[in-house]
Amino acid sequence: MPKLDGKIAVITGGNSGIGLATAKVFVKEGARVYITGRRQAELDAAAALLGPSAKAVQGDVSKPADLDRLYGQIRSEVGRVDVVFANAGVVTKAPLGSLTEEHVENQLDVNVKGVIWTVQKALPLMGPGGSIILNASIVASKGWADWSVYSASKAAVRNFARTWSSDLRGQGIRVNAISPGVIPSPAHENAAASRDALNSFMAYAASITPLARTGTDEEVAKVVAFLASDDSSFIAASEIFVDGGIAQI
User: Fold this and answer.
1) C-alpha span between 113 and 129 (Å, rounded)
2) Hey, is 205 helix, strand or coil?
3) What is the pLDDT of residues 14-64, one digit of tens each?
4) Quick one: average pLDDT of 90-104?
5) How many Cβ atoms sit within 10 Å of the Cβ of residue 189?
6) How far apart are CA 235 and CA 238, in angstroms?
7) How confident is the model at residue 225 (pLDDT cuts 50, 70, 90)?
8) What is the C-alpha R_g of the chain?
9) Partners of 83 in the beta sheet?
10) CA atoms within 13 A on the CB side of 96
11) Which residue from 144, 164, 214, 217 has the highest number of Cβ atoms inside 10 Å of its Cβ?
12) Which CATH number fits domain 8-182+217-242: 3.40.50.300, 3.40.50.720, 2.60.200.40, 2.60.40.10?
């Protein structure tokens, strides 16, 4: 039997990258998946790729009203949520001394507040056996220059897995975080000053990773699927690194 057979899953930022790769694995493992994202064209393409077991709902996780609409649709169509993968996030880089209000607020609105609203608004639809997976990052454990606000936002996400596990004690809902290493993605492309800068960063990341390479969306997705499944039934409040060892040495 597929590991997620019959489960109802929500994946924010499910139209590309790690989110889309995870949606593919979830569908393969028998889940019915709702994906969200801000760009309708990408959502439509992702939904077509995923097939009839997936639905795309346009929305911005930093806007509570958009999440109310998402969960209202889920309530009317299937009545429950079994798995939440709070994956949506943004990244921009700037050194201390050059930080702007927009730089700070944009990342905190999506990466911190967006995760809060995504999870809190799902809770009325969740019950025992539910699994919440938060997409943190190795940057929460590192001190890379120019990444201070993004790193702080991901450190908050990692801590949510701890504190929310305490908040939900006895309810049978597990909360865990994954911390991917360097995974080539549109987010990295958007954050890089140029293609040469991007290539240089990827080469540097591979050079300091024990496995001597960057990772893939699919490698992260398999770990998310594990945390969503009953195979991880006694794992809670934990952070699983999917990083080739880069944050461990």
Assistant:
1) 25
2) helix
3) 999 999 999 999 999 999 999 999 999 999 999 999 999 999 999 999 999
4) 97
5) 10
6) 7
7) very high
8) 17
9) 9, 131
10) 6
11) 164
12) 3.40.50.720
Residues with active-site annotation: 150
Long-range contacts at 124-127 (CB < 8 A, ≥ 24 apart): 124/71, 125/71, 125/74, 125/75, 125/79, 125/80, 125/81, 126/80, 126/81, 126/82, 126/84, 126/173, 127/80, 127/171, 127/172, 127/173
Quick one: tokens of 28? Answer: 């393969």
Residue with tokens 């490698």: 219
Residues 6+ apart with CB under 8 A from 47: 35, 54, 55, 56
Q: What pLDDT digit, counting tens, does each position of 142-156 carry?
A: 999 999 999 999 999
Give the tokens for residue 133: 């997976």
Q: What is the arithmetic mean of pLDDT over 193-211?
A: 90
**What is the C-alpha separation between 15 and 29, in angstroms, rounded?**
18
